Amino acid sequence: MQHPSQVHHVHSVAASSSDAATLLDIALAAHRSGQSELAASLYRDVLALDPVNAHALHYYGVLHYQHGGYEGAARLMSAALERDASDAACWNNRGLVAAALGHPDQALVCYREALQRQPDYADAHNNLGVALQAQGAIDEAIEHYRVALALNAAMADAHLNLGTAFAKLARFDDALACYRDVLSLDPQSAQAHFNAGNAYLALGHHEAATVSFEQALALNAHYAEAHVNLGSLIGKRGDYAGAESHYRQAVALKPTPTHLVCLGGSLGAQGRLAEEEVFYRRALALDPNYADAHQNLAWLLLKRGDYRQGWAEFAQRWRRADYDALAISGVAEWRGEPLDGRSLLVVGEQGFGDHFQFLRFASVLARLGATVDLCVREPLLPLVERIPGVRRAFSGKPDTLYDFWVPMMSVPSCLGTELATIPADIPYLFAKPGMIDAWRERTGFVQPTKRKVGFVWAGSPTFGNDRYRSIALTELSPLGALNDVAWYALQKGPAHAQLADAPPAFRAHDFTAELESFDDTAALIMNLDLVISVDTGIAHLAGALGLPVWLLLPANADWRWLETRNDSPWYPRMRLFRQHTLGDWKPVVEHVLAALRDDAR
Hints:
This protein has 601 residues and is an alpha/beta fold. It has helices at 20-32, 36-49, 54-66, 70-83, 88-100, 104-117, 122-134, 138-151, 156-168, 172-185, 190-202, 206-219, 224-236, 240-253, 257-269, 273-286, 291-303, 307-314, 320-326, 352-358, 361-367, 411-415, 433-443, 466-469, 504-507, 518-525, 537-544, 586-600, and strands spanning 332-333, 343-347, 371-375, 390-394, 404-407, 451-456, 485-489, 509-510, 530-534, 549-553, 574-578. It has a 6-stranded parallel β-sheet with strand order 8-7-6-9-10-11, with helices on both faces. It is elongated and about 110 Å long.
């Protein structure tokens, strides 16, 4: 914003001065030196002497703007422009006021008016860039930022704004260069450090991002957004207690729904279930439609076994963009209406494990009279086509109309599913018989005296809780000493490399390179006696196939495994082995070892 020109500090003035021009100079000096009350009084004195003094109207409007009086600022600046429409600075400032009042189109007009009168006005180019960027015209905004910087290379705000524009275009290296320019001009810019942290994070440079967020907070300990982003970053590394500390500071500074949900989530991740609910409730009191709060509250209620309220909350989990990406245009979403004689498209969502768990409802819907089609992720085809009651399964957009569609994980809420009514008739997934036989021949199962056990020790490293969900293969080494077990690795992904240094027993039967589809994996699993796994899609697949599964769970286990049970209502042949201390797998492995020995007797 264009401020009054710098003059010497003013301590007092005679209110009876009749010289409006002199009085205005003194008012501007008082304004510039921070004496707001004195400046306001002097501007009023000037306007009492000269009610149409354009400069007094303009800068009295600036004073209103600086103190949040946007309506008053708009009236004063508009009056100034009626008197003198040639003042580029007043047009520029009127644009800032329009933006503050939520009138973006008017702001654009004002900035353009300013530039029409003064084409080399760097501030107006910068402000016009901000307005254009807010409306999505990022390329045009970048051009105005560049013009501003060509006119004034020392304009830190323009460097900062150019960086944010590049970040919007995912040009994060260019954005970082801009933030470095800001910091060369203003090393104390907490916002530049914060923005740099976000750019580093987007590039996957987590250490650099951590340093940038920490620098932002060192410069401004009350920077709530920096607390949140740093908390989220260290939380993803598994330091949930550290994340909690930052989220608490963010909530103390700005108790927004987002910050409250972050704090609640960090408590839940530490297994402190009794403490997290209040923060989701507070978030929903502020914003009853806040999807993340509904989802986290749903997970908590479901984990407690309160399926009635849990599924009701889960039905409100949608962010608009996520829902729109899933919804079937022109088809009504099913919410529990009678299905007899109706066609229903069930649309898969979230991960493979979620698909495997909730595909059980397809046959339930068919028994209610629906013609059921499935739209699922391509790797699940054709395995899911063999589910009883499914007419067909496909991936992509539907090529026919349906009476209803429903997100797969919304079906329990539509059916009123309770713990006692979970459909647990297994198997409901089936491997292809010919492939089962082919895998039996390929693997040469000729060890009738040994128990054949498949094992999975890690999930996707991109999963938020993977640090605690997955286990290092070395921690399972005691199991490899069992002479009556033949181990079959089912591990895919980066963690498979851990087999290279594993006990020979773990490496003896490794066919993972030949598992080209879930059909292959299902057929191999059907040749095993047991699957031991951490919480991954393979555990769900084995459970849905009806095979015995031993599931190793962290202390902050997912909602679907409830709180204390050692069995699962979702999979009757599943046994749960739970941590009691987050991160401590040793007692769990000892428990599994003892159970394997007991079963061998």
